[in-house]
Each structure stands twice: as structure tokens, then as C-alpha cells.
Amino acid sequence: MIEARRNETDGRSGTRTWRALGGLVLLGGVLLGGCGDGGFRPMYGGAAIGGAAASEKLAQVDISTIPGRVGQQLRNEFIYQATGGGARPEPVYRLEIAVRESVTSTLIDQAGDSRGQVYNLDAAFKLVRIADSQVVMEGKSYSRAAFDRFSSIYSNVRAREEAETRAAKTMAEELRTRISAYVATAA
Predict the structure, then answer these.
(1) Containing H/E element for 158?
(2) What is the pTM assigned to this prediction?
(3) What is d(CA 50, CA 115) in angstroms, rounded to the nearest whole number?
């Protein structure tokens, strides 16, 4: 008898749950129905934005040469993220980046030796519209990558190079996101 009552209660609460869920879906549909032209839209979606998808507009950004090994890695990573390794269309914008590198020691032991370091990559960037050489966006970006210090010199060199690579990749991703947001909404 107790089991029969539980089943009846579960059946009713299950029906209530489905009704509430259906109401929420209906309400969500009504609210999102007004998000047509001026509302929310995916930045990387297939829907056209001003005649071209954001990824196509991002591929139209040419990045100037950046001196140094890390600068070259940053440039290559940005180009790959912007184009996916495909052909690049005629550039509409030029991205100019100036980088500054530094290393901060951490985990200092009693003898004064550093057991860890942080590779710091700081950049100032400008997005220039090529047609009229006007700076349309500028800003700063920062990336940090920690690495351990070892007794082997080769291990230290490799650890720092891997930290530089991680920092360059992280910065390229961040710059891609910021510039994508700009070019997706630019006329």
C-alpha cells in the first residue's frame, strides 16, 4: 500500500516536472525569438555578419613581422589561428605588435638558487585599417608561463623554450579573440 502511494506521487511529480520544463522551453523560445538582427549571435557561427563570417574577416588581418624567436612564434600562431593554415585573402587590416620579454625568479632556496621561474611576455598592439592607415584598435596583452629550473643546463634551456612557446600560443589565442570581436562588428 505504501508502494502504491509512492508510485502515484512519483507519477504526479513527474508530470509536474515535465509541465514546468515545457513552460521554460516555451518561455525561452519567446525570449530568444526577439534576438534576430540586433540580438545575440555566435561570433564564429556560419551565419553571415556584414557579408562575411567572422573567421573570414579575421583571415583578412595581416600581421607585421615581430623580431625574435618568440615574436616569430606569436606571429605564426596568430596566422594559423586566423586562417587555419589555408590561403589568406587580400588584407583589410594590419596588426602591429611590439613584444617585451622578461623572466622572474620564484622559489628561491636558502643558497640563493632559483628552483622555478616565470617567463613574462608583454605586448602592445595596434590594429590598423590598411585603406586609410587609421588605428582602429589598440591595447596591451600579457602572458605568463611558469617553468622549473634543473641542474642540467640543457633541461633549463628546454624548459624555458617550452614556456616561451606556451606564452606565445596563449597570447595569440587572446589576440585572436579580441580582434575577432572587433572585426565581427566592424562595418
Answers:
(1) helix 153-185
(2) 0.69
(3) 52
Give the H/E segment covering residue 71: helix 69-83
Q: How far is residue 121 from each of residues 14, 76, 105, 134, 165, measured CA to CA in Å?
A: 55, 16, 15, 26, 10
Structural domain includes residue 43: no
Residues 6 and 81 in one domain: no
Task: Give residue-wise pLDDT tens across range 142-152.
Answer: 999 999 888 88
Residue 4 pLDDT grade (very low, low, confident, very high; cuts 50, 70, 90): very low
State whether 58 and 30 are in the same domain: no
HSE-CB of 138 using CA atoms within 13 angstroms: 8
The side-by-side arrangement of strands in the sheet containing 134-148 is 61-63, 93-108, 114-129, 134-148
Cα 107 to Cα 28: distance, rounded to the nearest angstrom: 51
* Cα gap 110→159, rounded to integer Å: 23
Grouping H, G, I as helix, E, B as strand and the rest as coil, residue 76 is helix
- pLDDT for res 32: 56
CA pair distance 42, 185, nearest whole angstrom:
12
- Alpha-carbon separation of residue 55 from 85, 114, 130, 181 (angstroms): 12, 43, 19, 10
Task: Measure the CA–CA gap between 70 and 156, rounded to whole angstroms.
Answer: 17
User: Per the structure, how many domains does the chain have?
Assistant: 2
C-alpha cell at 8: 502515484
